[in-house]
Inverse folding.
């Protein structure tokens, strides 16, 4: 009997995948705001929690991820917090449960000889502006900037260019005049001599200048129904992701990049590593969603989204910190 039990235990250990819980996760794009999710994968932290994660990458932007979640083709999304507000205005309940990027990370870049001068906002008129996708936070960035300066989206042309290398190429090839994007694209623009950063919201000061406050972006979110019906799954995903955030705080950009799959790294590794270092300030240190900071995306959305402006938004129903608060203390090294 003892030998039989030992044999059974060995079978469980060596065929762990057969006992793993399957969960479908989708990511809007492989921009650096979503990096903690990929680090958790690279460190094997989801598998450590007994999860078999299937990942869909919608490289065109976060709006596609949101659509997949609402349609039921994914369980958990790696997307931007402001989507939860939009969905509430439409009567749909999406809830964020881990904060990955506590700040925007967006920049507005232009070519060296471009005509747009941030000191003269009206010079943006007629510009072809690259965004990741319609309905994305880069789209919101442009619309809010225009609205604050008495302009509208009709004064420019908004063009979807995705993120990473394709976005930089669009600026380099003259397909767009300005680019609103995240790292690594932001760093590539400068390091490759393609252009310069004109507005930088990667740091707190820049975000406050643009939005009037800190603008949380990348989070893990799911439908309220999934959160309520699968609390143990949500807790396991949370445990792994928060451990990844803690690990990132204790390791260099080079060490972080070393844990990433090759297809996540845009361009050459050296420049990408610089991009990770440049973006360090945007990452959450503990996964908690700040109750004050979430007011900033609401203010931005209200300024141009009629459904949000007309709705009575209850921010307390767009996020929860209950799972992060239950994460066991770990010693990441």
């Amino acid at each position: 009997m003892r030998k039989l039990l030992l044999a059974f235990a060995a079978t469980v250990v060596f065929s762990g995948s057969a006992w793993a819980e399957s969960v479908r996760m989708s990511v809007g794009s492989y921009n650096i705001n979503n990096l903690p999710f990929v680090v958790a994968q690279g460190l094997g932290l989801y598998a450590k929690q007994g999860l078999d994660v299937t990942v869909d990458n919608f490289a065109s932007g976060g709006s596609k991820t949101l659509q997949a979640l609402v349609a039921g083709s994914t369980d958990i999304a790696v997307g931007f917090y402001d989507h939860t507000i939009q969905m509430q205005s439409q009567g749909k309940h999406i809830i964020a449960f881990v904060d990955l990027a506590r700040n925007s990370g967006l920049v507005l870049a232009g070519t060296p000889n471009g005509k747009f001068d941030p000191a003269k906002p009206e010079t943006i008129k007629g510009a072809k502006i690259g965004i990741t996708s319609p309905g994305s936070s880069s789209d919101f960035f442009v619309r809010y900037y225009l609205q604050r300066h008495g302009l509208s989206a009709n004064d420019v042309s908004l063009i979807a260019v995705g993120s990473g290398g394709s976005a930089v190429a669009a600026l380099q090839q003259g397909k767009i005049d300005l680019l609103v994007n995240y790292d690594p694209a932001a760093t590539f623009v400068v390091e490759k001599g393609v252009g310069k950063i004109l507005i930088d919201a990667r740091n707190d000061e820049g975000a406050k200048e643009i939005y009037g406050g800190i603008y949380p972006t990348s989070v893990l979110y799911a439908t309220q129904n999934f959160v309520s019906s699968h609390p143990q799954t949500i807790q396991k995903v949370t445990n792994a992701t928060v451990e990844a955030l803690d690990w990132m705080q204790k390791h260099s950009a080079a060490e972080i990049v070393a844990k990433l799959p090759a297809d996540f790294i845009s361009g050459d590794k050296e420049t990408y590593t610089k991009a990770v270092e440049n973006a360090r300030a945007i990452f959450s240190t503990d996964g908690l969603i700040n109750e004050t900071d979430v007011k900033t995306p609401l203010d931005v959305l209200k300024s141009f989204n009629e459904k949000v402006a007309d709705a009575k938004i209850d921010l307390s129903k767009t996020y929860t910190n209950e799972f992060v608060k239950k994460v066991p203390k770990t010693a990441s090294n």
Notes: The beta strands are 21-27, 51-57, 76-80, 94-99, 107-110, 128-131, 157-160, 178-181, 196-200, 218-223. Residues 21-103+215-325 form a domain with the D-Maltodextrin-Binding Protein; domain 2 fold (CATH 3.40.190.10). Confidence is low (pLDDT under 50) at residues 1-17. The chain has two domains: 21-103+215-325, 107-211.
